[in-house]
Amino acid sequence: MDNMLEGKVALVTGGGRGIGAAVALRLAREGADVVLTFQQDERSADETVRRIRATGGRATAVRADSADPAAMVAAVDRAAGRSGRLDVLVNNAGTFLLGPLEELGLDAFEQTIAVNVRAPFVASQAAVRHMPAGGRIVNIGSNMAERAVFPGFSLYATSKTALIGLTKSLGRELGPRSITVNLVNPGPTDTDLNPADGPDAATITGFTALGRYAEPDDVAATVAFLAGPRAAYITGATVNVDGGFTI
Ligand SMILES: NC(=O)c1ccc[n+]([C@@H]2O[C@H](COP(=O)([O-])OP(=O)(O)OC[C@H]3O[C@@H](n4cnc5c(N)ncnc54)[C@H](OP(=O)(O)O)[C@@H]3O)[C@@H](O)[C@H]2O)c1
32 near 88, Cβ under 8 Å? Predict the structure, then answer.
């Protein structure tokens, strides 16, 4: 353990698998008591908790649909209830609905905005009620907010671009309380959402400078840095962890 987050309480939305699980594992390894949310995949959430506990860390999984604002607030309050504070919020859970403009219905629009935009807003609002000076909010966006290389991403890119504005404005607003707010934009990362052996993987890889997909832990390392004390003077920033996809 690096112990950079010893004594801290962290909430990671969508922390049961993929990038969120890697973040939960990293934060726990650095000493944080981690609460992770899941929506459907209870087995993966339980497995991530088991892995954290197996190495001496502390973690709990709670079911919370990010599309439900009341569930988001309840998850935040539950995390804060563990020791009366919430030090780190990672807004990671994301939905990935793609398609041609004419085929994306209002239900897809509403689900995408609810999970990718409203949930980070609501969770941040609830979290700062419990967040002391030194608190950290890290949003997970996407490289697709910066570079539109494929058709069909209009809705997803719109939602992830909104996080740039949310991150900057909350960084400004919460700065006087010594709470930082930053955005990590992953590029292609090997998860269920975008498997490195998927049908379009070779094309996607071709857009990176490094010529490979990220592992979830590549993203988690940056999130953990931003969540820790060494990032105290970084706020409102967007950090691309995308292997050069957007250069
Ligand atoms: N992988 C990439 O290439 C890539 C690139 C750029 C950005 N990102 C972003 O990184 C984040 C994590 O993506 P990932 O690749 O790790 O995806 P993933 O493997 O598909 O995992 C998605 C996670 O989000 C959770 N989730 C989805 N909808 C939810 C809801 N309504 N309520 C609560 N949790 C919900 C899932 O929970 P369950 O396990 O319960 O289903 C799961 O934990 C997302 O915000 C995504 O947009 C990913």
Answer: yes
